DNA sequence: CCATTTTTTACGAGGCTTGGAAAAAGTCTC
DNA sequence: GAGACTTTTTCCAAGCCTCGTAAAAAATGG
């Protein structure tokens, strides 16, 4: 079998419609002329495609008053039509589930957070919980209720590479939990289950300041995880959710990690690692170290407590070495950092950069930009929403049932 | 600016021609019908495209006698036309340059190896040397001399990401050496300069047993390097030649590496590392450890010398941890191994697998296939040739100046 | 109120693939 | 050995895109 598939007029149509939608998501509003300029399509083609998408209800012509006064016929502003679809980004974490519903334009419509002890529960319970969450989210909307078109579930832990469920999660005792199929049956929408950290780069998919940029997202908190955006695509492993940055070995034979191995980055840099190192307690704590506890630790370090300072330093060192290893393999990348580690960046940054310097060839990447993103939940919701919308764009570009109804 | 470019009929044509060529390279010979089946094109389109490519001189109809006797009109066999182009794969290594010329079908026409002390020489000398090598190669051909169409230079060391030259190489004292432009002027063909290890996966580009497979190539010898094939593409860094596997840190604060850092994989697993560890000499040897010396070391280990055995074990351990780290980040991958390490695989394999087991989550990948490829030079030549041919296929598919002359 | 400028739409042309029909080139059977 | 059968290849009209140009539309400026 050939690796290269054929192309035909259908593909061209789909691809170009997608290009128009993608451009529109990046800039918010455009005109037919601007679409032509941005995509390289002729104005004729741009106009024709835009017209079709408007008739399909994916885009709409909007009034814009801030238009600068110029001569000539003013362009009709076009924008994504929010009513075209509704998506949900759900999140499963230790001790809580949360979610956000957004419209097709990406505008958040409602958000909900619910603390539940899910540790010992099975798949049915989780699916019920998520379905209830989605229903309650829908009830919060001012607008009329309507079915969801696409749901993304972000999970702490390892997920199946076919996006169907959870291999293993620190939030759950059970393993191998199917989520996508049963939840899809309950909600009537396609469901994709992904690792939260791998998903994070999606949040920047249409951010103009990140356009075409390769970068990594780094979560340091309860665990340690990474997401990669390379060559304009969010990296996804074939066999699992991949980029298990927290379990890249830092020190052969080193500190014990939750995963059973010794010397993982997580065993030095995660909340529990910093806590046990700072308190001199060698065991992995049975329960999650809360955000407040980490704040207190950070404050103690800032106050000068040498043991706590050393713990944060060791954490930064492990992260730095891990980044240095990634940079050596891939390339130096800008880092978007989130989680409790982002809140303690003042305690970590120096040793992170020192670690990169010691482990990367020529210390390359030790001066890489470190972008802080304190609100992890917002990041995950943004990412899940973007992922869902991108998937819908693809579907819509493919189907595009040439407007059944005309306004 | 939009990330997605437009598509049009031109793109379709180029893409489909490329699909036909790519299929043909994978199978050697086909028929128009088989092309249709493999690419998904209609038989009409397949026939039309094949006809064009034959008229352009890229493909030719060949007589095949081993055809199985079936009813119906027999298909006309098609094959890549070797005369359509001529490419060279050159190699710069410590103390020698070598090269191979092949025709458009990938058939090797001539090979040449030349020992030269290039260590202290500058760019002009290197370019002269390569140009002479290419000229001498051309003179060895039975067929009439003709210009090269594409040249690939594989280099030990780091190369510019625009493929224009050498940032740094262990074979050369000088740094930042421009190769592509001056050599191109001399040879009249486009020249691309790449890192030898990064290039290696290209050797399997059209191998049916590797079709669509993700895998890594691992060179263990004078240095330690890796090539990655992910999602059907050979991984290339943006900033450099990338995947510096040998310089992924293995042990913080560990053994001194040539790169100046401490604890790199190379500082444990390369020839010089094994040598200094086995001999108890702490310094990095000034000169390259020859293949014979490594053979003697390996034989000593096989004979039971404990210090030498320990050196090989430490090497395998470092490689295993390195692979475990890569597997944790990307995914477990089959490994194609070459270099002196492949020759000593009996001494390394156990500790490699042990290292993976200790460093990858759940030991995933410790049972990954290890494919040995003893002839490194052949691998590099294959890779360079495949790279060059793939580049030519792209050009030809684009231009395809609809046959000026007809048979 | 008309000329000017800019955006959008309309229309014919060109290119590529498609599907079916016709032609070509063998094997098989009587 | 001639005709029937089968399979591959070629030919041709049709369909879908996009493109370029021209015309229409919508606002400004004098």
Q: What does this 3D model show about the protein?
A:
The structure is a homodimer of 407-residue chains. With 407 residues, chain A is α/β, with parallel strands linked by helices. Chain A folds into three domains: 72 residues, Orthogonal Bundle (Arc Repressor Mutant, subunit A), CATH 1.10.10.10; 135 residues, ATPase, nucleotide binding domain (Nucleotidyltransferase, domain 5, 2-Layer Sandwich); 167 residues, Nucleotidyltransferase, domain 5. Chain A has 13 helices and 16 strands. In chain A, the strands form four sheets. Chain A has a five-stranded mixed sheet with strand order 6-5-4-7-11, sandwiched between helices. A five-stranded mixed sheet of chain A has the order 14-13-12-15-16. Chain A has a three-stranded antiparallel sheet with strand order 1-3-2. In chain A, strand 8 and strand 9 form a beta hairpin. The N and C termini of chain A lie far apart (47 Å). At the A-B interface, helix 1 and helix 10 of A face helix 1 and helix 10 of B. The first copy, chain A, binds a DNA duplex (30 and 30 nucleotides) through helix 1 and helix 3. Chains A, B: This is ROK family protein.
* Number of alpha- plus pi-helical segments of chain A: 13
Work out the oligomeric state of the chains in this entry: homodimer
Kindly report the name of the CATH homologous superfamily of the largest domain in chain A.
ATPase, nucleotide binding domain
In order across it, which strands form the biggest sheet of chain A?
A: 6-5-4-7-11
Q: pLDDT average of chain A, as an integer? A: 92
Helical residues, percent of chain A: 25-40%
Number of domains of chain A: 3
Distance between the termini of chain A: 47 Å
Quote the beta fraction of chain A.
15-25%
Protein name (chains A, B): ROK family protein
InterPro entries (chains A, B): ATPase_NBD, ROK, WH-like_DNA-bd_sf, WH_DNA-bd_sf
